[in-house]
Specification:
Layout lengths: L14 E7 L5 H17 L4 E6 L7 H10 L4 E6 L6 H16 L5 E4 L9 H16 L22
Parallel strand pairs: 1-2, 1-3, 3-4
Helix pairs in contact: 2-3
Length: about 160
């Protein structure tokens, strides 16, 4: 499926999307989720897209769910921005989402699979490896993720 085209029979004006990560004490990490969500919002047809953290930082899932409903969502899709289906995906995010949805009778919701199950993840892995190797070879500058850490500037030795 083309990422800019929602599934058939889906009303992009009344379907809210919440992209949720774990949440961090590092403000830089939390800010990256906002960048991811803004880039996603600009590249898709979804009209209601909100960021959320599962815990630690705002906005939390209930806040994002409320915002979706306030903006006209009749159904909400919660996309865990996680690689693999661990406890947070199996238990925590569904429980938090169900509690948030309970305040909005009649609103449908879905918690999707995490990223690691996508057939496109292999391309993402290859892209990241290539970028880091180009950086360590001095062909490109550090990416925003590594900027200032020195992690991709030199090959490490044992």
């Amino acid at each position: 499926m083309d990422m800019s085209t929602p599934p058939a029979q889906t009303d992009v004006a009344t379907t809210g999307i919440i992209v949720v990560d774990h949440g961090s004490r590092r403000e830089e990490s939390n800010a990256m989720l906002l960048q991811v969500v803004e880039a996603y919002r600009q590249q898709t047809q979804w009209q209601i897209v909100e960021p959320a953290h599962m815990e630690i930082a705002e906005p939390l899932i209930p806040t994002a769910f409320d915002r979706c409903v306030e903006r006209g969502a009749k159904r909400v899709v919660v996309m865990p921005y996680f690689l693999l289906p661990g406890k947070h995906w199996h238990e925590d995010i569904p429980a938090i989402t169900a509690e948030a949805a309970a305040k909005h009778p009649g609103i449908e919701y879905l918690v999707t699979a995490p990223l690691g199950l996508s057939s496109l993840i292999h391309q993402v892995i290859d892209n990241r490896i290539g970028e880091c190797m180009e950086c360590v070879e001095g062909q490109i500058p550090e990416c925003d993720l590594c900027k200032g850490t020195g992690r991709c500037l030199n090959w490490q030795q044992a």
